């Protein structure tokens, strides 16, 4: 059996978050020791690690509760759980695409600055009068 602090270390969760999850009913069948302190077994720890992942996937507390309820009903609810996870997966993939676009912009901007610093191209800016690019329809413009 593990104490709250031991579980926090094992799951990379802070004490307040673990206590909140327990109080929200997200950790079912929490046991108590003789001093009425929560104690956890390996199954609890594994589930709490799953909760941490679900949170990182963007699940709200309410969605995690719904997912937990489905899990507690057994294998018959696997199709519903798969749908929930698929929705989260698609949202994460969209976020990844947005991040990749942001990285591509930064890569382009860094290349522009490298070229300016090396004297390979003149500095132009949309922000400074007199330094605007000649052709505003030429795609990305430096700043």
Walkthrough of the structure:
The chain is an all-alpha fold. 59% of the residues lie in helices and 3% in strands. The chain has helices spanning 4-11, 15-23, 42-56, 61-72, 78-117; strands spanning 31-32, 38-39. It has a two-stranded antiparallel sheet. It starts with a helix and ends in a 26-residue tail after the last helix. The mean pLDDT is 91.
Topology:
Elements: H1 4-11, H2 15-23, E1 31-32, E2 38-39, H3 42-56, H4 61-72, H5 78-117
Antiparallel strand pairs: 1-2
Question: Which keywords apply here?
Answer:
143 residues, 5 helices, mainly alpha, single chain
Q: Strand order of the main beta sheet, please?
A: 1-2
Major sheet summary line:
2 strands, antiparallel
Shape: elongated
Q: Nearest-angstrom radius of gyration?
A: 25 Å
Low-confidence stretches: none
Question: Which sequence of SSEs, written as H and E, runs from N to C?
Answer: HHEEHHH
Structural class: mainly alpha
Overall mean pLDDT stands at 91
- End-to-end Cα distance: 58 Å
- Please estimate the helix content: 55-70%
How many DSSP E strands?
2
Strand content: under 5%
| Number of H- or I-type helical stretches | 5
């Amino acid at each position: 059996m593990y104490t709250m602090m031991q579980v926090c270390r094992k799951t990379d969760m802070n004490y307040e978050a673990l206590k909140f999850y327990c109080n929200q009913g997200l950790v079912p069948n929490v046991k108590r020791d003789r001093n009425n302190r929560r104690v956890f077994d390996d199954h609890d720890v594994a589930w709490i690690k799953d909760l941490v992942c679900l949170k990182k996937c963007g699940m709200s507390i309410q969605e995690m509760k719904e997912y937990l309820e489905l899990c507690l009903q057994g294998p018959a609810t696997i199709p519903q759980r798969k749908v929930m996870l698929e929705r989260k997966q698609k949202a994460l993939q969209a976020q990844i695409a947005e991040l990749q676009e942001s990285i591509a912009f930064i890569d382009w901007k860094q290349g522009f600055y490298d070229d300016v610093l090396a004297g390979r191209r003149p500095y132009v800016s949309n922000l400074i009068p007199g330094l605007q690019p000649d052709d505003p329809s030429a795609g990305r413009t430096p700043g």
